[in-house]
From TrEMBL:
Record-annotated Metallo-beta-lactamase domain positions: 17-220
Taxonomic placement: Bacteria, Bacillati, Bacillota, Bacilli, Bacillales
Protein name, UniProt field: MBL fold metallo-hydrolase
SMART domains: Lactamase_B
Length: 220
């Protein structure tokens, strides 16, 4: 029996809050981590403590995708505990990116703006490269099975919102962690991103994830 506990964390984005989830069973899994920065980190720890969970109790963290309101908490968590991180294999490029990759991505956005007839100087927020290396990262792919709270969940690659989105699905119960693949309050944005080298996902793959969602819903 896995107990699933939503951990609601503040964000500065339109949705106001984002949910991480605790799955408590034979093992303890944290799904997503909230925003970067100490404020979100302290909020996460406080909310974990309300369920008598400390960071050191978490066996592993699974990330639904790499957007900062879901994965931004990893560096501060790993400063305190060496907890394993699981994320889709296409995230490897981003996590190993160096300054050359950063500059290539910035060039992509500049060219994209110009092709759209927009002035990149006005519309791109200036960013500078910041090195950030995670430890103890394992990569997941479509069809993998991962224990969440000690119970087996299937990994489904669901590109659309981002290229590395995964859903975690228990075929027996229909329990599904969908990340931002579906959002209750409004339509999900498909983020414009530089293509990941080796990413073969195409639109038909995105459509196929819709049938997976229906399958998941049908279990309830
Ligand atoms: Zn997102």
């Amino acid at each position: 029996m896995v107990r699933i506990v939503p951990i609601e964390l503040d964000t500065h984005f339109a949705e106001g809050t984002v949910n991480a989830f605790l799955a408590i069973g034979e093992t303890i899994t944290l799904i997503d981590t909230g925003n970067p920065g100490n404020e979100s980190f302290q909020q996460l720890k406080t909310k974990l403590h309300k369920h008598n969970i400390d960071l050191k109790d978490i066996d592993h963290i699974v990330l639904t995708h790499l957007h900062i309101d879901h994965a931004g908490g990893v560096p501060l968590i790993q400063e305190e505990v060496d907890v394993p991180i699981y994320v889709h294999e296409l995230a490897k490029c981003s996590l190993n990116a160096d300054i050359h990759d950063f500059e290539r991505d910035m060039l992509f956005f500049r060219q994209f703006m110009e092709e759209c007839g927009a002035d990149p100087l006005k519309h791109i927020v200036k960013q500078s490269y910041k090195e950030e290396k995670w430890q103890n990262v394992s990569y997941l792919k479509e069809g993998d099975v991962i224990p969440i709270g000690g119970h087996n969940f299937e990994v489904e690659h669901v590109p659309g919102h981002s290229q590395v989105d995964i859903m975690l699905w228990d075929p027996q119960t229909g329990d599904t962690f969908a990340g931002d693949h579906i959002i209750k309050a409004f339509s999900v944005n498909a983020f414009i991103e530089p293509p990941i080298p080796g990413n073969t996902a195409v639109l038909s793959h995105c459509y196929s994830t819709v049938s997976l969602l229906k399958k998941s819903a049908a279990c309830h």
